[in-house]
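ugh ok fine here u go
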Amino acid sequence: MPWRQIKRWLYRGGRPGSLARLLNRGWATLHARGVAPDYLVTLEVAGRRSGRTISFPLVMVAVEGDRYLVSMLGNDVAWVHNIRAASGRAVLRHGRTEHVRLEEVAAEKRAPILKAYLQRAPGARPHFPIDKHAPREEFEAIAHQFPVFRVVVAD
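structure:
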């Protein structure tokens, strides 16, 4: 089974299955400890229903001096709902703890960030309907489907 099909199988219906959740938990632990490259981070946010801290392994991308987090599975995922409910307040971990505020980027400004993200995050590519080398116009056409958040250091 090719890698693209495996990734889609792990996230059937746009949600992580049991195996994907287990793998994500392991990756979140490694990213938080700083074992992986510095662009692999663990996002911690309060659950919107439980209030418990929930951890997600994510790929952070830098564009023009700003850092961004992208939802490879689109709008209807737990961490995006939790960030919105928490007014953007979260913690990033990668060997150290950083309290941050995530500001959602308007869809019309997402294209260059999404393109940079696909260059950086090969695991996200099966979830995007376009190639990482697609022209900017194609990224603009799908930008509304993939939330992007700018990372701002919290006061």
